[in-house]
Amino acid sequence: MLSTVALFRQRAETYVSRVSLRPVIPKASAHLRPATEHDVGFVTDVYVVTLRAQGRLARDFDEGAFRDRFVAQTFREVEGDVPDSTTYVIEIDGERAGRLRVVRGPDSLEIAGIQLLPAHQGKGNGTYLIEQLVVEAHDAGKPARVRAGRDNPRALGLYRRLGFTEVGTDDDEIILESAPRTQADGTEAEASFSRGP
Ligand SMILES: CC(C)(COP(=O)(O)OP(=O)(O)OC[C@H]1O[C@@H](n2cnc3c(N)ncnc32)[C@H](O)[C@@H]1OP(=O)(O)O)[C@@H](O)C(=O)NCCC(=O)NCCS
Asked: Would you call 87 helix, strand, or coil by DSSP?
């Protein structure tokens, strides 16, 4: 069976061959742009706000100290001082809506953090962005990896629905991976996603 991505590509190609309009492809409102130093405060807010909304902050959470560390680390990321790492602002309808960090290493593409502000959650944008990253990883012949907290069952459920499987654990986190499938002829198969109901 053709994957969703292959179906859209096929449909787009068919459409282009018949008419000269742009192909019909899924339109997601989410847009990524690399974060700059002007976004450091915003991405820090997103991180803290989403954790708080999930009820995942420890009772003795020291927000000031945490923010100081997070801001310093994010500055290093946006200034290019962290190898292979890109921090993005997720924009939805032109507004800043979330944070995404991707580490494109030699052997894997790691989704090293994705947070959408609560008002933007549950509308398909996370699925769309994660799927794009999985396709990018598989096209490069690499697995996509992600870590999710054991205390974050909804995120774990999302990754599992998108075809990620558990490959390890690390303290309070589960490491999941979506490996490129190798076909009988040795070439990489198209990424596919198994969606839940
Ligand atoms: C996880 C997240 C990026 C998914 O993006 P999204 O656009 O909300 O997700 P989609 O609408 O594409 O898909 C819905 C699924 O996302 C997951 N999800 C939705 N809200 C969530 C939340 N607050 N926390 C964790 N997962 C959530 C669930 O699996 C949901 O399916 P369900 O309703 O059947 O449980 C986003 O919800 C988020 O930022 N959550 C808070 C931060 C977080 O947990 N990040 C993941 C760290 S590994």
From this structure: strand
Q: Which atom number of ligand 1 is nearest to the Cα of residue 196? A: 34
pTM of the complete model: 0.84
Q: What are the pLDDT digits (tens) for 74-91? A: 999 999 999 999 999 999
CA angle (127 as vertex; 163, 121 as ends), nearest 5: 135
Q: Is the CB of residue 125 less than 8 Å from the CB of residue 116? A: yes
Q: How far apart are CA 116 and CA 191, in angstroms?
A: 24
* Secondary structure (3-state) at 60: coil
Ligand 1 contact via 114 beta carbon (within 6 Å): yes
187 domain residue, yes or no: no
Structurally, the chain folds into a number of domains equal to 1
User: How remote is the CA of residue 153 from the centroid of ligand 1, in Å?
Assistant: 10
CATH code, domain with 152: 3.40.630.30
